[in-house]
Specification:
By secondary structure, the chain is of the alpha/beta class. It has helices spanning 2-16, 21-27, 68-76, 91-98, 112-126, 138-145, 157-168, 178-186, 190-202, 204-219, 223-231, 240-259, 279-285, and strands at 38-42, 50-55, 59-60, 79-84, 154-155, 172-176, 264-269, 289-292. Strand 1 (38-42) and strand 2 (50-55) form a beta hairpin.
């Protein structure tokens, strides 16, 4: 199951990097959102508030923080909604089936020099020959290589939520299906994605520096700064709508229906929160009161949750 949710995590990471919401917000004089990762959602006929949390999908264990406040909101929630139901027992099989290219291979998408460069990097990074991965869709391979951006033991908020849910027999649900997420990448030509992989491995030091800056902004709960750093990444220019904006709009009716059933906790990538087409503004436009929640960090912050 670990390999399956790693693939999903990189989809979440790279889709967040496509966002340009902060720039859009400024162009339309929309005020920036407050510095916060945890938000309450109330009003609009809700009997009780639900909560929205902005995650970062990969982070070093030493930087991972999980507040007692967030734990309390998890306990209060009827269900926990992630971007997809990562605890779905069928997800591994679905992911595997959706990850294969039927009509061509990675070798077909590159010239010989580029393919040899990628092969050498894969062997050095993953310790396996390129032939094992040749029929995988480019983003599937990218999901494996992207883990090399972190040169430290990593932690995942999504994985932590899944572990907590299993311990408490609380149901995990998804705002969309794995088929929906994979379909997002299928709208980008495989040849373009193959070049994205080459760009990533050729600029790995820059990728690590950029990611470290994003982590610092995340730790400060500075959504606006985080959005600026994400929007400066040029590799996803032109794909913002399919990667982020359309998905945000699709999630609002799902969230609205869920909140009528009782208090929920929604945990999505922090890049989905700010901006004109961000979750916070879309919820407010739908009539909800969305307010920042100050988090309390104590002994729980860097220790496993029991």
């Amino acid at each position: 199951m670990k390999q399956s949710w790693l693939l999903v995590l990189v989809l979440l990471v790279v889709s967040s990097k496509a966002q340009k919401n902060v720039a859009s917000a400024r162009a339309e004089n929309l005020p920036p959102v407050e510095n916060a990762l945890l938000w309450s959602i109330s009003g609009n006929g809700l009997a009780s508030p639900s909560y929205l949390y902005g995650t970062i999908h990969m982070i070093c264990k030493e930087d991972f923080r999980f507040s007692s406040t967030l734990k309390d909101k998890f306990e209060e929630a009827k269900y926990v909604y992630l971007e997809i139901d990562m605890d779905d027992p069928s997800m591994m099989m679905k992911t595997a089936m959706l990850s294969i290219m039927k009509d061509h291979s990675l070798k077909d998408l590159m010239n010989e020099k580029d393919y040899n460069e990628l092969s050498a990097y894969v062997k050095d990074s993953l310790g396996m020959p390129m032939m094992i991965f040749n029929k995988l869709k480019p983003m599937t391979l990218m999901s494996l290589l992207y883990t090399k951006v972190l040169s430290c033991p990593s932690e995942s908020y999504e994985q932590r939520f899944m572990e907590m849910a299993r311990d408490r027999k609380k149901e995990i649900r998804g705002l969309e299906k794995i088929e929906d997420q994979m379909a997002v990448f299928d709208k980008i030509p495989d040849s373009v994605e193959a070049q994205m992989i080459l760009e990533m491995i050729r600029k790995m030091p820059e990728q690590r520096t950029e990611f470290a800056q994003m982590v610092e902004s995340y730790k400060k709960e500075d959504l606006n700064k985080l959005g600026e750093e994400i929007s400066s990444s040029p590799e996803w220019k032109g794909f913002e709508d399919i990667m982020l904006v359309n998905r945000n709009h699709n999630w609002i009716p799902v969230m609205s229906a869920a909140m009528k059933e009782g208090p929920q906790l929604f945990a999505v990538g922090a890049g989905h929160l700010p901006g004109k087409d961000g979750i916070i503004n879309l919820l407010r436009k739908a009539g909800y009161k969305v307010e920042p929640v100050r988090q309390a960090f104590g002994e729980i912050a860097f220790s496993p949750i029991n």
